[in-house]
Amino acid sequence: MLDFDAALAGAVRPPLPHGDGSFEEIRADAAFTRLADGWAEWLLELRRTLAENGLLVVGLSPRQGFEELAGTPWDESGVGMTVLSALDGPGSRVVFHSEWWLRAHWGRAFEIVSIEESDGRPFVSLRRRGGDVSAEDLERAEPGDRRELAAARANAAYLAGQLDRAVGLWEQEREDTHRELMRRSFAAADAEWARGGPGSPASLVAAEYEATTSWRLTKPLRDLGRLFRRDR
Predict the structure, then answer these.
(1) Taking Cα atoms as reference points, which of 93, 109, 107 lies closest to residue 50?
(2) How far from the centroid of its chain's Cα atoms is residue 64's Cα?
(3) Angle formed by the axes of helices 213-231 and 146-196, to 10°?
(4) Whose CA is closest to 32, among 6, 58, 11, 63?
């Protein structure tokens, strides 16, 4: 058996260091949930190394994960092959597949034996088909299938939605950083005022802050804080 997840960790691109038809079973529990680029080439490489009656088992991303990342319910016709940005770090991507898309695209190189749920995730079992198939063949849209266009449009909408959310998060972080810098500036000016006395550069900075609305509004709170510290 070949563990493709482990093999992929040490491989940048095909081919794998194995002969044709080397494995009766190949497992890819997570690899194709991350392979947004080069997936067709790798799929054909697994087909090459799979024995004639061997079985390739591929784990797919769950629908629940799609709904969490896309912020919209799963739509079988509108997913196709969708790539979304993950929440666990920059550059992380998660790939989702509709069953119809798998049958249309992967089905050109494999017979789809079954698609079953295990531990909340779908797993597809495949056997190799004969004939010559290229990566371009696997990637090509299914002629006359309107779901291909629907999925392409939905993908654009998902990406736009993710971009909007990312911009919103960035703006919130920027505002939080600005508020923290202002808080530190007021605290520093307050401390320098206490040390510097009238006419010092610190007093001039403090005077500028005293003229702002934020300084006047927060002054009672600072006075209470000083009284509290003295009492202690």
Answers:
(1) 109
(2) 14
(3) 60
(4) 58
**Any idea where the domains of the chain sit in the sequence?**
2-140, 168-231
Number of other residues whose CB lies within 10 A of the CB of residue 159: 15
- How confident is the model at residue 92, as a pLDDT? 82
pLDDT of 138 over the 80 cut: yes
Question: Residue 102, exposed/middle/buried by CB under 10 A (0-12, 13-18, 19+)?
Answer: buried
Considering the entire predicted model, what is its pTM? 0.68
Closest CA to 92 of 19, 162, 140, 193: 162
Using alpha carbons, list the distances in angstroms from residue 131 to 109, 134, 137, 140, 150: 8, 10, 12, 17, 30
Each residue of 27-50: pLDDT tens digit? 999 999 999 999 999 999 999 999
**HSE-up (13 A, CA, CB side) for residue 108:** 17
How far is the C-alpha of 66 from the C-alpha of 152, rounded, in Å?
Answer: 16
- How far apart are alpha carbons 224 and 232 in whole angstroms? 13
* Matching CATH number, 2-140, of 1.10.10.10, 3.40.50.620, 1.10.150.120, 3.40.50.150: 3.40.50.150
3-state secondary structure of 84: strand
* Residue 208 to residue 204: CA distance in whole angstroms: 6
